[in-house]
Specification:
Hypothetical Protein Aq_1857, Chain: A, three-stranded mixed β-sheet, globular, 2 iron, 2 sulfur cluster binding, HesB-like_dom_sf, ATAP, FeS_cluster_insertion_CS, Iron-sulfur cluster assembly accessory protein
Length: 109
């Protein structure tokens, strides 16, 4: 099982944690949302909890709840800027379909 970060994503995580002045990792989750069923959730984590799985890539860390790892296993996370917009972008091999706006997705069964 693995989740990897591009160098840009790792730098962004390190930058945001430094700006916050605390934290150990980006906390990544999956929540029910949108027209296709699921969406990613992001937060910064101050601790690694007992039911968390920790991934490290390019000197940055990502935390995922163990029961959600199978939904994003094999994903690569990038950080992209398009004009004034910036966001984390996923390459997730477990996605079956995305909605028209790109905010939600369905998973392969």
């Amino acid at each position: 099982m693995a989740i990897t970060l591009t160098e840009r994503a790792a730098r962004q995580i390190q930058h945001q944690l430094g700006k916050r002045g605390r934290g150990v990792a980006l906390r990544l989750g999956i929540r029910k949302s949108g027209c296709s069923g699921f969406a990613y959730s992001f937060d910064y984590a101050d601790d690694v909890l007992e039911d968390d799985q920790l991934f490290e890539s390019n000197d940055a860390k990502v935390i995922v709840k163990r029961d959600q790892v199978s939904f994003i296993d094999g994903s690569e996370i990038d950080f992209v800027q398009d004009g004034l917009n910036s966001s984390f972008k996923f390459s997730n091999p477990n996605i079956d379909n995305t909605c028209g706006c790109g905010e939600s997705f369905s998973l392969k069964t």
